[in-house]
Fold this protein.
Amino acid sequence: MRLLIILSFILSSCNMNNSSKKKIFKDQKDIDAISEVLSRQQLSWNIGDIDNFMLGYWNSEDLIFTSSKNQPTYGWQATLERYKKSYPSKLEMGELKFKILNINLTAPKKAKLKGKWKIIRKDDNPNGLFWLELQKFKDNWLITKDSTLSFEL
């Protein structure tokens, strides 16, 4: 009988350890707030306002932006300058459309997002995928890492 009690205790301890490793954070309020960051960015882009678009990024030298076409960019200011160089006017910016594929809250104040992007312009429509890492600072979700992949059609 004693052996059965010990075995039951060991098995229940194993189950408790496994469940804590697979903790999933689900907070619809945070998911909605993250979606709103991208919505505000899209609106800013579509009126030609890169400065306002950049408010969705963490204003830090630790911000990382990578893309399939360029070397990684480190820091908020460098990312802003890169955007302005790549898209010097509303004509080059075109109309941006995002589609969020999934948002995963990996911790109470951290998230990962996967999405599709497309820019509609007169002569072309570049598009691709992006992966974001976001962090909640006080009540604001901000992008801390942006990895963007472009498809050439």
Remarks:
- The mean pLDDT is 87.
- The first helix runs from residue 2 to 21.
- The chain is about 40% helix and 35% strand.
